[in-house]
Amino acid sequence: MESEDLIVGITLRSFDVYMHPTEAACYYGYVCCAGKKLSVAEGTIEYGEACVVGDKVGVLLEFDEKEAKLSFYRNSVFYLPLL
After folding, report:
1. Is 34 left (phi over 0), alpha (psi -120 to 50) or beta?
2. Is 5 helix (H, G, I), strand (E, B) or coil?
3. Cβ neighbours of residue 9 under 8 Å, at least 6 residues apart?
4. Which pTM value belongs to this model?
5. Residue 62 to residues 6, 53, 81: CA-CA distances in angstroms?
C-alpha cells in the first residue's frame, strides 16, 4: 500500500467508491500515512504528523448556521480545521 492510499474524509453521496478522491468533484480528507490534508481546492499539503501502527484517528464535523468545519485528531491531538 502506498502512503497516499489510506485517506479518511468526507465527500458527496454521489462519490464513486472505485475512484481516487483526487478525481472527485468535492472531497476533503486526511492522508493518514503521509500526515497531509487533501482537498479539491488545495490538492495535498502538509497538515499533521503521519500515522503509524497503533495510532487512533478521529474525525470532527461541526455545523453551525453559517458554515461547516472538518477537523481531525491523531491520538487525541487536535489538528486545525481542514475547512
Report:
1. alpha
2. helix
3. 21, 27, 28, 29, 30, 38, 59, 70
4. 0.74
5. 23, 28, 10
Q: Which three cell numbers stand for residue 60?
A: 470532527
Quick: pLDDT tens for 44-82.
888 888 899 899 999 988 888 888 888 888 898 887 665
Set of cell numbers at residue 82: 481542514
Asked if 83 contacts 63 with a C-beta cutoff of 8 angstroms, the reply is no
The rounded radius of gyration (Å) of the Cα atoms in the chain is: 13
Alpha helices, DSSP H only, in 28-82?
none
Phi, psi for 23 (deg, rounded to 5): -95, -5
d(CA 14, CA 2): 25
